[in-house]
Amino acid sequence: MKNCLIFFFTLLLLTQCRSGETKIDPGMARLIGNWTLTDATSSGSVTLKIALDAANPPHDITPFLASGKGLLNEYSARFYGSIDGKISADTFTNTEVNGASETVLAEKIYFSQLTRLVRYQLVSDNELKLYYGGTQSGVLTFAKMN
């Protein structure tokens, strides 16, 4: 029995390696797209684009490339998600355009929240909730644009 299992998993691994096709969990694939922040307190449009990081195929963790426009600046990050709803952000960068102090502060808060992501929830195909932790935990709600 043990030899049969080893053969099966070896065959499965070889099949996945030969296909050359990136496989992603259908639930995780629903994260891919263009999103807009629905928070009524922000003073402008805030966007988030999530794309599969095809250079790093998914295994237990699915890597995504994230980018968007804050209230003033463009940003990018790498997200790591799993099918159990966990998510984290890494390698966050942004441009540094200045504006009104309250807009700069609101954007800095949003960027800080993105860097502290801990969980995601796809409420529907058109609504995404990103939960962040830390001393000030909360949720960012996005609506799908496409």
Describe it:
Helix content is 25%, strand content 38%. With 146 residues, it is of the alpha+beta class. It has one domain: Lipocalin. Strands 5-4-3-2-1-8-7-6 form an 8-stranded antiparallel sheet. A hairpin with a 5-residue loop joins strand 4 (74-81) and strand 5. The radius of gyration is 18 Å and the shape is globular.
What share of residues are in beta strands? Answer: 35-45%
List low-confidence stretches: 1-19
What's the order of the H and E elements? HHEEEEEHEEE
Give the strand order, joined by hyphens, for the main sheet: 5-4-3-2-1-8-7-6
Number of domains: 1
CATH class: Mainly Beta
- Overall geometry comes to globular
Structural class: alpha+beta
**Total count of helical runs of at least 4 residues:** 3
